Amino acid sequence: xxxxxxxxxxxxxxxxxxxxxxxxxxxxxxxxxxxxxxxxxxxxxxxxxxxxxxxxxxxxxxxxxxxxxxxxxxxxxxxxxxxxxxxxxxxxxxxxxxxxxxxxxxxxxxxxxxxxxxxxxxxxxxxxxxxxxxxxxxxxxxxxxxxxxxxxxxxxxxxxxxxxxxxxxxxxxxxxxxxxxxxxxxxxxxxxxxxxxxxxxxxxxxxxxxxxxxxxxxxxxxxxxxxxxxxxxxxxxxxxxxxxxxx
Length: 247
Hints:
247 residues; single chain; Jelly Rolls; eight-stranded antiparallel beta sheet; three-stranded antiparallel beta sheet; alpha+beta
């Protein structure tokens, strides 16, 4: 399925308790960050669509918490044997790193992220393979902003991405505007379900129109020795390379 579609969903890959642990740790980071207690490289970006609203807690106004894979319990999940076994098989390599982590909050009212390919953000040598691991920390159903994926689009080159055209879009949001997305399918998930996906796969999320949060932990992996040109291309980076498996 992964070779054909560019993704595979593994229901129940983790337990709800493990998903709850990731969520709880992310909430704690968001609250500590708001009090100035979290040191770099971890940082939090705000959800722009909620910026003018009175949020009860810092996590309710947060969009993403970046660079957490060196911290517990995110590190333990990123380096689980079953995660690394799956990623190693998809990368077809025994030596690889986790280079990016982000915990995504999507509170009620938050915008979805436009259609994109993650490889647009990854100016690497070699460019591929890169594998993403999307861990559902809450349910993701049609009303609270789940992911939609375009099966088979991982065979496409990286398309032109333009800045998100919505006023006051979230930090770093770009979108593909030259591809027919009518074949996209909704990936509904429960806490602990995991989506493994290719970095060329086109995917997007919808707005959270529900009254509950949709949250997920996302890791990205690439082969050891990959050369990262992000700073040269963009002037900054959110990547943070960490070796996770060596033969």
